Amino acid sequence: YRQGVVCTVAIWPNLNARWTLEELAASLRTPVFSLFAGRRSNPLGLPLNPEIVEVESMAAAFAARPPVPEKMLAELQRLRPRAGWGREVAHDVCEGLPSGLVAPLRRHVRRDVPANRTGWLFEERVMEVGMLPSTGGVE
């Protein structure tokens, strides 16, 4: 579990999506339950700021994210690591959407896709890790 981090998350739709991006954004703006990271003892420290953008790559989605709201800027600067904010992105391999990430690019195989809950069997999922091009912002 990570603490004291600021994360930007990108979600893209697929043809069989259960909810639209607009429905997901509305639910994140006004959640029914308290949001947490991994365990209920790790509640989120800042409110979520979902935005929907239409872009040609995942890296472009991160570059198009809105500026950090002024009221959060002071808190983010206080949390900023000495070496600056990371630009590393880990993502599932996505068909039809180029990542737009720059080297180093590596792959991780995770065995965390439930195949059979009764027997606790899991299938493999391939993740890629790369670096975002420098975008400026709160670095």
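the 2nd protein, sequnce then structure:
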Amino acid sequence: MNRLGSETSPYLRQHADNPVDWYPWGDEAFARARAEDRPVLLSVGYSSCHWCHVMAHESFEDPDVAAVMNRLFVNVKVDREERPDVDAVYMQAVQALTGRGGWPMTVFLAPDGRPFFGGTYFPKDDRHGMPGFVRVMEAVGEAWRTQRDQLGEQAGRLHDLLARSTGFGAAGGAESAAQLSPEVLSQAVSAVASQFDPRFGGFGGAPKFPQAMTIDFLARMYVRDPSAETLDMVQVSLDAMAAGGMYDQIGGGFHRYSVDDYWLVPHFEKMLYDQALLAGAYLHGYLVTGEARYRRVVEETVGYVLRDLTHAREPAFFSAEDADSDGVEGKFYVWSRAEIEQVCGEDADAVIRSFGVTDAGNFEDPHTGFRGNILHLVDRREELPEAVARARAKLFAAREQRVRPGLDDKVLLGWNALFLRVLAEGAAALERD
């Protein structure tokens, strides 16, 4: 029996028709696990997560896979945005086990909740060196029956590790606090600089996440101690992200992250907290440099949230928009050259030149073969030509006729607070009531 139909989370309701015997997080699931001496299969994700959808389509919607899940485990589905407390604990466990993390997150627990094995996305069948989900479940089930002592020891070690890493004041105490000084900030700048990509901006390699708080920190440090190197890290990063496909060149707002080094191909979900943090970073970049292009990004990003993520009846903002529409990642955002020419008319040549449009395109959905162009600014610092500015309005109107990505209409206090902060700061700094 699937128990998710009456849940408030849109993500849990997406799984309400799965043939999996899902439980929401709670005592009922663990009581059953203890009574039947079965491990718990914990699956954590969120509604706008592309790879969560992939694993759902491949495995959770498949009756044969669901039968294995129901036979071997008590299955629990968690929305990480609704239960960040649960997500944080088990993400630490998965990172300790595998050296990496992400969503969907798949964790196997003893009936008392202690994790003993886990990972992220598992394909249905063995693929690209990754073990198939069914094979993983059968192996875990066999180990639970025949190697219970070893699994208990593993769970104990993980439990102790998590207890140490989450204990406040476990080490250092007053002695560590006494060592805090302004030198810590300089050391942080040096550490960030060692990871900086001087060509494409950002920190580290692909996949690249927009490290808004790092950029904001660097902008504050530049005000405190002006340095050309610090300012360069701020500007190269802000320019590259806003010029890439990670920024929605037509409707404003930022996608989740880039799969490549140069911010071209994103995963297309849009999260409220990213809009808040990145709009704040661009606002501070504008205040530090006076560059009009940063102000434009702030205004367009705020405009996106006020237009598409704002509750119609309550003073509140929704959580996210999906990466997929019509079951295809990026379909809402990607264009063919023929579409550009049809919509833009005499302005099409300028759009094609400014946004790097080609016949072959620069994006393909690996699951469906859908191809097209992710629009991006070829010249990072170019102010948009008048023809392109005209054409953007036409492209936006045409795009509004497409099937929109799914909306996660949860209202989360913390994410709303982040966005309210940037509204307050932006209102004062830009004199925009």
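The first strand starts at residue 22 and ends at 24. The CA atoms of residues 201 and 324 lie 27 Å apart.
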